[in-house]
């Protein structure tokens, strides 16, 4: 060695590999570089992934609408498209100051969220947005189909879904699962067409107007139930609670009443 | 391990002669899981080859500074970060295939093939040979995956890359798909047959039997 090395990093790197200082230094440097790499990739690619997810959601809605019998004919009559409406859940009517374009910004404001107390909070959400974007299909003056976005706590995390209701606001026309983190092969099967196919025709409430919908444990036994998935009891309960919350008094319940009375 | 420095040998050896899957039986978990169709098999192969090559290059570049006590952790951190980056890229640009591969991209981290190569080769060689070796091993893995994937998709669905090759009975053709091919066990069978075939052609790949069966005459009936 000619002369003393003044760069402290070089002096550390010149230490024997087994010294404690060098071990810690190498561990720290490797983690720092890797952390930067991972964060960089995530941040740079997030906009593209978000666009992908949005496109996928649109495709799911299209597939959901297509899978409902007689839907194609209905769509053609009404001009071929669903209308998108932002709903003010507190007043149960169309929001005046929020449009689909500004919905994301509005939901970024904590003032537009309502805290739920544990008794109300069936779906385990904690907070509920005051605005939601729904899709309507009108047949003349009547609403013949409504698509409602739902979200709730499943077994592995949040489940996002879109539920389609027929014009009587009580019969399910179909469901699409737009996001979940359930166990692949068990709860993850909520995404499969074979499970979702037991939704159409299911009725949410009985004649008395009480919410009866539920994911059964095993095969469905009456018109208010859909088949359960073996080994995914908690996922099934999550779906039950999600539907019950969102179609109940704190979710879309008042809105559905208004639509049913023809006030919407 | 052959200590050759000829880059061409380093690259081509792992294709057949030293194939990591059929000879060393490394990384077969993912080889079985993602080979139901050719498209997922190819994506998985590309992802693994890229991760393996980059990881080998990085590990080799800092090989003189990795303390022995934490060398496995350092290697796994590097591999895991690369896997996350690849997963994010797949999610961004190949959303369909990324969904089909689901958790298996993440499981590249635990693929013993990757750690095996960085630990056995990259830690003792300069970056360029290490990357060539890793690339060759990635190609060897890909070769097996693509073969198994092609056979499974062909006989299981009558398709290759999603394009119908054999018209199915359901759609008015003559081919009845072997649905067993789409289940995991068939990948085991295919891999077993492949290993058997390879070792029949190249007998030097066969391992010495661990036990010699006792010599005995057939019992009289």
TrEMBL record, chain A:
Modified residue annotations for FMN phosphoryl threonine: 233
The keyword Cell membrane belongs to this UniProt entry's keyword annotation: yes
HAMAP family, sorted: NqrC
Family, as annotated: Belongs to the NqrC family.
Subunit record text: Composed of six subunits; NqrA, NqrB, NqrC, NqrD, NqrE and NqrF.
Pfam families associated with the record: FMN_bind (PF04205)
Enzyme class: translocase
Protein function: NQR complex catalyzes the reduction of ubiquinone-1 to ubiquinol by two successive reactions, coupled with the transport of Na(+) ions from the cytoplasm to the periplasm. NqrA to NqrE are probably involved in the second step, the conversion of ubisemiquinone to ubiquinol.
Keywords: Cell inner membrane, Cell membrane, Flavoprotein, FMN, Ion transport, Membrane, NAD, Phosphoprotein, Sodium, Sodium transport, Translocase, Transmembrane, Transmembrane helix, Transport, Ubiquinone
Any single GO BP term: sodium ion transport
Gene: nqrC
Record's subcellular location: Cell membrane
Coiled-coil boundaries: none
Cofactor: FMN
EC number(s) stated in the UniProt entry for this protein: 7.2.1.1
Entries under InterPro entries matching the protein: FMN-bd (IPR007329), NqrC (IPR010204)
Catalytic activity: a ubiquinone + n Na(+)(in) + NADH + H(+) = a ubiquinol + n Na(+)(out) + NAD(+)
Ranges of residues in domain FMN-binding: 154-250
Protein origin, superkingdom: Bacteria
Name of the molecule in the record: Na(+)-translocating NADH-quinone reductase subunit C
One Gene Ontology MF term: FMN binding
A GO-annotated cellular component: plasma membrane
Signal peptide range: none
UniProtKB/TrEMBL annotation, chain B:
Segments traversing the membrane: 45-62, 74-95, 101-122, 134-155, 175-198
One biological process term in Gene Ontology: sodium ion transport
Keywords: Cell inner membrane, Cell membrane, Ion transport, Membrane, NAD, Nitrogen fixation, Sodium, Sodium transport, Translocase, Transmembrane, Transmembrane helix, Transport, Ubiquinone
Sample GO molecular function, one term: oxidoreductase activity, acting on NAD(P)H, quinone or similar compound as acceptor
This protein's record includes keyword Nucleotidyltransferase: no
One Pfam family cited in the UniProt record for this chain: Rnf-Nqr
Keyword Cytoplasm annotated: no
Membrane association type: Multi-pass membrane protein
Entries under InterPro entries matching the protein: NqrD, NqrDE/RnfAE
Domain of life per record: Bacteria
PANTHER family, alphabetized: ELECTRON TRANSPORT COMPLEX PROTEIN RNFE, NA(+)-TRANSLOCATING NADH-QUINONE REDUCTASE SUBUNIT D
UniProt-recorded name of the protein: Na+-transporting NADH:ubiquinone oxidoreductase subunit D
Species per Swiss-Prot/TrEMBL record: Tranquillimonas rosea
């Amino acid at each position: 060695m000619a002369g003393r090395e003044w760069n402290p990093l070089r002096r550390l790197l010149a230490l024997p590999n087994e010294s404690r200082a060098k071990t810690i230094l190498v561990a720290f440097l490797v983690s720092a570089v890797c952390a930067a790499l991972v964060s960089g990739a995530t941040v740079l690619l997030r906009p593209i992934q978000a666009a992908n997810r949005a496109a996928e959601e649109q495709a799911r809605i299209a597939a959901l609408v297509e899978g409902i019998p007689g839907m194609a004919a209905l769509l053609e009559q009404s001009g071929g498209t669903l209308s998108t409406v932002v709903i003010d859940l507190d007043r149960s009517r169309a929001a005046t100051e929020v449009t689909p374009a500004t919905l994301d910004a509005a939901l970024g404001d904590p003032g537009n969220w309502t805290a739920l107390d544990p008794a109300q909070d069936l779906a385990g959400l904690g907070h509920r947005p005051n605005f939601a974007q729904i899709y309507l299909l009108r047949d003349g003056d009547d609403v013949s189909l409504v698509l409602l976005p739902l979200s709730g706590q499943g077994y592995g995390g949040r489940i996002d879904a879109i539920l389609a209701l027929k014009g009587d606001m009580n019969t399910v026309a179909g469901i699409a699962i737009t996001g979940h983190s359930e166990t692949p092969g068990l709860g993850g099967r909520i995404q499969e067409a074979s499970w979702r196919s037991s939704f159409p025709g299911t009725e949410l409430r009985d004649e008395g107007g009480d919410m009866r919908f539920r994911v059964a444990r095993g095969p469905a036994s009456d018109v208010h139930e859909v088949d359960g998935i073996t080994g995914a009891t908690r996922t099934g309960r999550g779906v039950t609670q999600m539907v019950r919350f969102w179609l109940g008094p704190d979710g879309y319940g008042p809105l559905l009443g208004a639509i049913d009375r023809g006030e919407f | 391990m052959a200590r050759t420095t000829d880059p061409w040998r380093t690259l081509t050896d792992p294709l057949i002669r030293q194939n990591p899957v059929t000879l060393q039986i490394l990384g077969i978990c993912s080889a079985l899981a993602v080979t139901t169709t050719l498209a997922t098999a190819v994506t998985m192969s590309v992802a693994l080859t890229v991760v393996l090559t980059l990881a080998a290059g990085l590990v080799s570049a800092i090989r003189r500074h990795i303390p022995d006590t934490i060398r496995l952790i350092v290697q796994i951190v590097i591999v895991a970060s690369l896997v996350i980056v690849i997963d994010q890229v797949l999610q961004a640009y190949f959303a369909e295939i990324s969904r089909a591969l689901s958790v298996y991209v993440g499981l590249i981290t635990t693929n013993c093939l990757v750690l095996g190569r960085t630990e056995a080769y990259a830690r003792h060689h300069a970056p360029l040979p290490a990357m060539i070796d890793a690339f060759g091993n990635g190609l060897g893995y890909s070769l097996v995956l693509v073969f198994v994937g092609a056979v499974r998709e062909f006989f299981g669905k009558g398709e290759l890359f999603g394009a119908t090759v054999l018209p199915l009975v359901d759609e008015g053709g003559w081919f009845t798909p072997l649905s067993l091919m789409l289940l995991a066990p068939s990948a085991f069978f295919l891999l077993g047959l492949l290993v058997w075939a390879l070792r029949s052609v190249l007998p030097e790949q066969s391992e010495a039997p661990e036990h010699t069966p006792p010599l005995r005459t057939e019992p009289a009936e």
